[in-house]
Amino acid sequence: MFSGKVRILWNRRVGSSYYKIGLKCGNALINARPGQFVMLRLDGRTSPLLRRPFSIHRIIEGEKGIEILYRVVGEFTGRLSEVKDGEWVDIMGPLGKGFSLPENIGSIFIVAGGIGVAPMLFLSTHILDKKMAGSTNIKVFLGARSKEDLLCRDDFLNLGLDVMITTDDGSEGKTCLITTPVEAALKEKRPEVIYACGPSGMLKCLAGIAETYKVPCQISTESVMACGIGACLGCAIEGKDEGRYLHVCMDGPVFDSRDIRF
User: Fold this and answer.
1) DSSP string, 12-34
2) Whole-angstrom Cα distance, residue 61 to residue 134?
3) 143-146 long-range contacts, Cβ below 8 Å, gap at least 24?
4) What pLDDT shows up at residue 55?
5) What is the rounded distance in angstroms from the CA atom of residue 179 to the CA atom of residue 184?
6) Whole-number Å distance between alpha carbons of 196 and 188
7) Closest CA to 63 of 32, 95, 30
8) Dist. CA 95–CA 67, nearest whole Å
9) Where are the alpha helices (DSSP H) in 45-162?
10) Could you tell me which residues are beta bridge partners of residue 236?
11) Which of 101, 108, 165, 212 has minimal CB crowding within 10 Å?
């Protein structure tokens, strides 16, 4: 695990409230796995004091760094959106348990809702780079509230992947929840595994669908974190077994959907 200051390569606005920030990390995160995260703290700023967790969105090969996709939702991300190229941030990672990637997967569904797409591009490129599955065997489902909240569609299309789009308001793609076309596709042909990240309601519905159709499903969850290393125990979520609690920073953030009580 690396902990230290890294230089900002870029901090680009990619939507109404969405940004991508590139961080030059050298070889510090070269062994990061899809689904893992980093904790950031703004250099030279006294508030907020605590670090914040962010999924690794993409590995930057040429610059030897990582890219993070984030949405401005509060004080920390508001300040993060203001940092400039060449400035420094404090980073710790890679942290947590990422997606499990069995060899010789034949068919994969990748499901993302809103900003939940953040770790899924890294996952897709990793699968393709490792030749774990052919591009025609990966189907991507992207859901968003509206066209303005739809993220990374072109990134997935540029990878040669089949992409299904839904929005709540019908401004792009089909007007429905993203779980609706997922279930329809499952009825036609079951994948060998489903990978998902998004709002808890989406993950709960998807976990139920996966259980009904007997398809393994791995979900990336979100939780408020203060430390990211299991010291504060503030990111506990209820496990499937009664009385058992899991910690997102150490046991996750990626879980088997059958291990979580929604």
Assistant:
1) EE-SSSEEEEEEE-TTTTTT--T
2) 22
3) 143/111, 143/112, 143/113, 143/114, 143/167, 143/177, 143/178, 143/179, 143/198, 143/202, 144/113, 144/114, 144/168, 144/172, 145/114, 145/169, 146/171, 146/172
4) 97
5) 9
6) 19
7) 30
8) 15
9) 75-80, 120-129, 153-158
10) 247
11) 212
The domains of the chain are located at: 2-95, 108-259
Q: Omega of the bond prior to 119 within 30 degrees of 0, cis?
A: no
Q: Are 42 and 79 in contact (CB under 8 A)?
A: yes
CATH class (in words) of the domain with range 2-95: mainly beta
Angstrom distance (rounded) from CA 199 to CA 214 = 22
What are the helix (H) ranges across the chain?
Answer: 75-80, 120-129, 153-158, 179-188, 200-212
DSSP letter for 209, please: H
The pTM of the whole model exceeds 0.85: yes
Q: Collapse the DSSP code of 117 into the 3-class scheme (helix H, G, I; strand E, B; otherwise coil) and give the result.
A: helix
Query: Is the domain covering 108-259 a CATH 3.30.930.10 domain?
Result: no
Strand partners, 83: none
Residues of the chain with pLDDT below 50 are 135
CA distances from 227 to 135, 188, 235 (A): 37, 43, 9
Are 43 and 84 a contacting pair, CB within 8 Å? no
Q: What is the pLDDT of residue 45?
A: 57
Residues 168 and 180: their CA atoms lie apart, in Å, by 12
What is the pLDDT at residue 135? Answer: 44
Sequence-distant contacts of 164-173: CB under 8 A, at least 24 apart:
164/139, 164/140, 166/141, 166/142, 167/143, 168/144, 169/145, 171/146, 171/147, 172/144, 172/146, 172/147, 173/142
Please state, in angstroms and rounded to a whole number, the distance separating the CA atoms of residues 100 and 220.
11
Return the HEC string of 153-180. HHHHHHCCCEEEEEECCCCCCEECCCHH
